[in-house]
Amino acid sequence: MVMRTLIALGGNAMTAPDGRARPEDQIAAVGVAMEAVADLIAGGVEVVLTHGNGPQVGNLLVKNELAAHVVPPVPLDWCGAQTQGTLGFVIVSALEASLTARGIAKPVAAVVTRTLVDAHDPGFRKPTKPIGRYLPADQAAAMIAHGQTWEDRGDRGWRRVVASPEPLEVLDAPAVATLVEAGFVVVAGGGGGIPMARDASTPGPRGVEAVIDKDLSAVLLARAVRADQLVIATDVDHMFLRWGRSDASALRRVGVEELRAHLAAGEFGGGSMAPKAEAACRFVESGGKRAVIAALGSIREAVLGEAGTVVEKESYSA
Fold first, then answer.
1. Which residue in the list 54, 64, 189, 276 is annotated as catalytic?
2. Annotated catalytic, 11?
3. Tens digit of each residue's pLDDT (9 = 90 or more) over 140-198
4. Is the pTM of this model over 0.85?
5. Residue 276: active-site member
6. Which of 1, 79, 139, 261 has minimal Cβ neighbours within 10 Å of its Cβ?
C-alpha cells in the first residue's frame, strides 16, 4: 500500500546550521532535504510538502523597517505570499533536480495558498505573538505610525506583536488535492498559509495581519489531501520530557492520550514544540495513521517510523 505523507519542513531547519539565512544557505539546506524527499519518492512514497517561513519573513520585516521612511511597509499577508513564492520555487527547483538525477519523471508544483481564520479570533483583540527583531523606541515609533503594534520589552528594546489565530480552512486545498491526484508533488501552505478572514467589509475573504502556526495548518492540509501520515521536520531529533534538565528523556513512541497529558502538564512550554505536539495529536485524532516529529536530516527514517517521536493512537510508555 502506498503511504501518502505530508512533510512539514521547519523554516529554521531550512537555514545554515549556525542560523544564517542567506540565499545560498537556504538553497543548500533545501537541496539536502530534497535529496531525502527524492529518495522517498523513488521508494514509492507519495509526498506532499509544506514549510515554515519564520526566518524568511523576519528578513522581510527588517527590510520593511529599514525602508519605512522611503516606502510604506508591506503587510504580513504580503510577506507570507512573497515567502511562499520564493521558498516554493527553491523547493520545486531542488526537488526537480534530485528527481531528474534519479531518472524519475514526476511533475512538481508550488501553490500559493491561503488559510482562513476567524476575523473575531481573540488574537486580533490582544496580539501576543512576537515577531522580528528588537528596536529602540524611536525606530519602533516609526513602525507604530504605520499602524503596527509594538511592546516595550525593557532593556532589549521594543518588539512587534501580532495575532496568531487558529487556522480554520485551507482555502486553496481543492486545487492542491486536484494536483496531488493528478500525480504532482505539491508544495503548499507555506508559513501556515496567507492569513485570510471574512467580514462585512468585503464580498470575499481578505488578507489580514497575522501569523498562522504552520504545523496546525499542516493538519488541515493533510486532511484535505487524505494523507496517511504527517511528518514534522524540525531541528531536534525527538521531543523530550524535562527538556534542558539533567534527567531529560527522549519520547520515541507515544500515544495520543499520553501526549495530551504531557501537553496539559506544560511539559513542552509555550515554545515551538507545543504546537508541534498539538498538531500531531490533532492529526492522529482525526484519523491519520501516525504523526512523526523528527530532525530534518532524518526525514527518510521518520517516514518509515524509524526516527523521531512517533505519535500513534495506541498508548506507549515514554
1. 276
2. yes
3. 898 888 888 899 999 899 998 889 999 999 999 999 999 999 999 999 999 999 999 99
4. yes
5. yes
6. 1
